[in-house]
Write a structure and sequence with these properties.
about 300 residues; Growth Hormone, Chain: A; two-stranded antiparallel ribbon
């Protein structure tokens, strides 16, 4: 079945009218593969920092009280969620009017990488970075992470076309899991298992990291930064961008706000879409809560260390 896709406005996916074969089996281009690699390179931050290694370390070691640690992380996660709720929809609604995405995506990437790396200085005694500073940094990265997700997702059809979008999306999910598994496996092999006497495992942690200073937990910040930096490069080299619109940023955001209000006020005419969006909102909120609390609960309540968290 062939259809003409809207070329402008909130539902547009291209800058000129295109004909696309829906549910096709298009070839995965180099730009589409680069788009998928970017997604894969972002996921280790969530796995290493938010869920399994770094945040449980902050709650159990830096704060020193598991209950207090959970409270602090929960509160700052709320701050992040509220800010994203208030701002991300306007960014999404304004994307078509902003035109080029890769410039904004590059700016966000450049801001995120040094903030990830800086988590290395979150020392157990707070001498390098206080708990408050850590929470501010991770909250800022969380907000920028969501913005990068909005901008990155808007490039999917431009990168892969409608007929291959499902392939690029599936590849991105697969790469995200692969990158996460590889980084967790490397962390276990290089920093948590040394000295265990297992074959093919180093006798001491690589790079001279000191477990007593919790350096194996802190090194995941630079690891996530390096993975993200390397994985982002192909997107900026090969993934096609939208054409410039010439609309000033403030005007684009204002027009996006108008479109967003029109969409919300007209939602009563699209009940199926409204049910889907509301249901997905509750699903994502529940999943996010599990991701945030799973690691800090296992670390704080069950007393699991770095190795147990890696196995988990």
């Amino acid at each position: 079945m062939t259809t003409v896709v809207e070329a402008s406005g909130p539902g547009s996916i291209a800058d000129i009218p295109i004909e696309a074969e829906l549910m096709g089996d298009g070839k995965l281009s180099r730009g589409a593969a680069a788009w998928a690699v970017f997604e894969g390179a972002r996921i280790p931050y969530v796995i290493l920092i938010t869920i399994y290694i770094f945040m449980p370390y902050v709650a159990a070691v830096m704060v020193g009280d598991p209950v207090r640690g959970q409270e602090i992380i929960s509160r700052w996660s709320q701050y992040s969620g509220w800010f994203i709720m208030a701002t991300a929809p306007f960014l999404g609604a304004s994307i078509d009017k902003l035109g080029r995405r890769k410039t904004w995506l590059a700016l966000i990437t450049v801001l995120m990488i040094p903030m990830m790396w800086a988590l290395w200085w979150a020392k157990p005694d707070g001498s390098g970075m206080s708990v408050l500073t850590v929470m501010i940094l991770t909250t800022l990265v969380g907000v920028l992470y969501t913005y990068s997700e909005v901008l990155h997702n808007s490039l999917l059809v431009r990168a892969a076309g409608i007929s291959a979008a499902h392939k690029a999306s599936g590849l991105a999910l697969a790469l995200g899991n692969a990158f996460a598994l590889l980084t967790l496996g490397f962390t276990a092999w290089a920093f948590a298992l040394p000295g265990s006497g297992l074959p093919f495992v180093p006798e001491k942690p690589l790079f001279g990291l000191d477990p007593l200073l919790h350096e194996p937990e802190r090194i995941v910040g630079p690891m996530a930064a390096i993975t993200f930096m390397i994985g982002a490069i192909p997107l900026f080299l090969f993934t096609p961008d939208a054409k410039p619109t010439g609309v000033p940023v403030l005007r684009a955001l204002g027009q996006g706000a108008v479109d967003l209000w029109r969409m919300v006020s007209g939602m009563k005419h699209y009940k199926d879409a409204a049910i889907f969006l509301i249901s997905r909102m509750f699903y994502v909120d529940g999943m996010t809560a599990i991701l945030i609390y799973g690691g800090i609960y296992a670390s704080g309540v069950m007393g699991w260390g770095a190795l147990e968290m890696l196995m988990y």
